[in-house]
Structures are given as structure tokens and as C-alpha cells.
Write a structure and sequence with these properties.
Shape: globular
Strand order of the largest sheet: 1-2-3
Helix content: 40-55%
Structural class: alpha+beta
Distance between the termini: 40 Å
Number of strands: 7
Number of helices: 7
């Protein structure tokens, strides 16, 4: 999501101006189907594309530190703990990125792509709710300091998550408590040497195309088995 920055210093305007035609600051976020935001990274210049922002994100440091919440879920082939992100086709074929397969004629692959694209809309819905709740994020920002803009945006995200937690507490049919996990405000920090070495090791493991293909096939199989089970009911 791009936050317009009206009072961007003139010397920085070219760097912060992208496809929007005006200086902006980019918000990267990970959200679930309840629009609860688990990770955010704000402040990248608006001229960056998704891959450039992803390269700068402290998300990779969290993965190296294994500080992300741990999830265990069941699939057709058994229990799985692999963390992955629903992404578009601009991202590389890594096991950590699950992407749609385009206009495949295979019904099972077509169904997988359809479900994945539906899940990807959750983060867009989260951005829309943020902008509807906080007009600050939609209108041109009049703050001069990038640090002040960063603090204001993170405040909006924390308030947004607090609203969801309150609604969950009032809902007796809730899927589960969000208080089991900790949301932390992400900043671009320099990792230690040991963490950086572990980071490189995890990235090399994550860049295995073979693992990507195996996990994607398992995910396609699981979704289609689930679809058949529902149709029989």
C-alpha cells in the first residue's frame, strides 16, 4: 500500500515517486483472513517494486531468527509446518512463495490457483479497511519527517489490530484467540553475524526449486481432496 507524502523533501521527490506519479511511502504487510496484520514494514520509497521492497524487509531476518509464530496444520499427506506466503507471479519459485499457475487446463491446478488468488485478496482487504478507518493513510500526508510518518502508520496498524482483538473477544464463535501470538512493529535492523549466516542458510534452503514443486503439488492435492469431500456432503 502506498501512503502519499505531500511534504516529501524536494531532493528526495524523484526517489520516492513511482507509478502513482507523486511521492509515496510503501507499507508491506502480512494479514490473515480476519485482516489481522501479523507483520508490517513501512518506509520504502514509492519507486520500488514488490521484489525490491521484499529484499529490504526485516521479514527475512525474522525467518532467520525463527521469531515468527509457529503454526502446525494438517494436509492430505500429513502434518505440515512449512510457512509460506500467497504471492503473485513476480516472485521467484521458492518454497516460501506459493503462486498461481496461470490459465491451466488442468481442473485441479485451476482450482488451486482460484483459491490462492482469493486468499491473496485478504491483504488488499486489510489495506482497504485501514484506509477507511484512518483517513491519514489515504490523504496526502502533511508531516515533514519520515520518522513521524512511520510512527503514525504503525499506530494505525496497532489500533486496527486492537479493534479486531476486541471484536474477537465479543464473538463467541471466534476461530481462536489472537492473544496467543505477539505482534511486533518491524523496523529495518542490521542482523548479527551469526544471524546473518543462519539467514543465508535458510535462504539457500528456501530457494530450492525441488522443494517448491513438491510442496506446491501437496497443496494442490490437499485443496482438491478438500473440494471433493465438501461436494460429497
Amino acid at each position: 500500500m502506498h501512503v502519499p507524502w505531500k511534504n516529501c523533501p524536494s531532493a528526495w521527490a524523484g526517489q520516492y515517486t513511482g507509478k502513482e506519479g507523486t511521492p509515496t511511502l510503501v507499507l508491506e504487510a502480512i494479514a490473515d483472513d480476519r485482516t489481522y496484520i501479523w507483520h508490517s514494514f513501512f518506509g520504502s520509497p514509492g519507486s520500488n517494486n514488490d521484489i525490491n521492497i521484499n529484499d529490504r524487509s526485516p521479514m527475512w531476518i525474522k525467518i532467520a531468527e525463527e521469531s515468527f509464530p509457529k503454526f502446525t496444520y494438517n494436509m492430505s499427506h500429513g502434518e505440515e509446518t512449512n510457512l509460506y506466503y500467497a504471492a503473485d507471479n513476480i516472485y521467484p519459485d521458492f518454497p516460501i512463495f506459493m503462486k498461481s499457475c496461470g490459465d491451466s487446463k488442468d481442473p485441479s491446478i485451476h482450482y488451486y490457483s482460484k483459491r490462492l488468488e482469493a486468499v491473496r485478496k485478504d491483504v488488499e482487504r486489510a489495506f482497504g479497511i485501514l484506509q477507511a478507518r484512518f483517513a491519514f493513510l489515504k490523504r496526502p500526508c502533511l508531516l515533514w519527517s519520515q520518522e513521524y510518518v512511520h510512527d503514525a502508520v504503525q499506530c494505525c496498524i496497532i489500533l486496527h489490530n486492537m479493534i479486531i482483538e476486541e471484536e474477537e473477544a465479543e464473538n463467541e464463535d471466534s476461530k481462536g484467540s489472537l492473544n496467543d501470538y505477539n505482534f511486533t512493529v518491524s523496523e529495518h535492523v542490521r542482523p548479527s553475524y551469526d544471524i546473518f549466516e543462519k539467514y543465508l542458510e535458510n535462504i539457500r534452503d528456501a530457494q530450492s526449486y525441488h522443494k517448491f514443486k513438491i510442496f506446491r503439488d501437496h497443496l494442490i492435492e490437499h485443496l482438491n481432496n478438500f473440494k471433493r469431500a465438501i461436494s460429497k456432503q
